[in-house]
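Colleagues,

For the teaching module next term, I've prepared a clean inverse folding example: a structure given as tokens, and then the sequence designed for it. I'd like students to try predicting residues themselves before seeing the answer, so please don't circulate the second half yet.
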């Protein structure tokens, strides 16, 4: 028995290596070469005027020098008004978007809704997620004019696609046994939804709501640049007037609020999930 075992001297020491994603070395080289050629061709098609890039560096230097020191006081009334407008848009759009998203998410869950309703709700989600918030903001500004109402509609529309899709996927991944236990008691469809599904997705739904609130505030600063109100409009005005010190103050306020919102939303998501 002992003689059949290999001695320690004959055991070859090997180093463990992870399995490659693509097993064939030739195929790996072909793909890498193809990606390199494509990247070179793509960069070559860009019409970059390097002389203008070089001329831009001194302007960029003057631009950043103008940021210091940030001026929080000269236009504080406008900054505060823009900030409050952004917060108002963020909270209102998040609440409205979530209220609209919930029935769409239920209809977009294949294990809950019949097939025609499923396809209809999924098409709403796809439409809402197709365009970036800036493009949607431009559209609503053209419809309703400049101001916070266009921003409110933009953020509500964006919240619909985001929240409904993620919530519907959570509904589709519930524990079927718990839901079927409620159905076996003779519960109606609404009771089955309330007692069999809602308790399973509620923590995740709260976490998504807090996360979307955080996103909406950041987006409110972006869409304001195209005329949808909020602190972004104040920032754009500061740049147009060459008040770079005021613009720096606005950017610092946005960074501070986003960091605070990120930290707070992280704590809340950790508590509820």
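(Answer key — instructors only)
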């Amino acid at each position: 028995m002992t003689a059949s075992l290999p001695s320690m001297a004959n055991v070859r020491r090997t180093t463990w290596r992870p399995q490659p994603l693509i097993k064939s070395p030739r195929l790996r080289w072909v793909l890498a070469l193809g990606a390199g050629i494509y990247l070179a061709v793509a960069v070559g098609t860009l019409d970059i005027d390097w002389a203008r890039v070089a001329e831009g560096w001194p302007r960029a230097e003057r631009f950043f020098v103008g940021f210091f020191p940030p001026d929080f006081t000269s236009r504080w009334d406008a900054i505060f008004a823009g900030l409050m407008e952004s917060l108002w848009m963020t909270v209102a759009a998040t609440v409205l978007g979530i209220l609209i998203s919930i029935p769409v998410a239920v209809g977009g869950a294949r294990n809950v809704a019949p097939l025609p309703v499923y396809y209809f709700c999924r098409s709403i989600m796809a439409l809402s997620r197709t365009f970036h918030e800036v493009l949607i903001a431009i559209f609503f500004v053209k419809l309703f004019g400049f101001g916070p109402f266009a921003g409110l509609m933009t953020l509500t529309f964006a919240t619909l696609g985001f929240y409904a899709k993620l919530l519907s996927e959570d509904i589709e991944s519930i524990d079927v046994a718990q839901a079927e236990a409620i159905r076996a008691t003779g519960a109606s469809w609404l009771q089955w939804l309330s007692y069999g599904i809602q308790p399973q997705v509620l923590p995740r739904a709260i976490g998504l709501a807090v996360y979307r609130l955080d996103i909406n505030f950041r987006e409110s600063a972006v869409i304001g640049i195209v005329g949808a109100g909020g602190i972004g409009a104040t920032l754009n005005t500061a740049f147009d007037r060459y008040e770079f010190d005021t613009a720096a103050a606005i950017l610092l306020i946005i960074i501070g609020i986003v960091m605070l919102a990120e930290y707070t939303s992280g704590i809340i998501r950790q508590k509820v999930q």
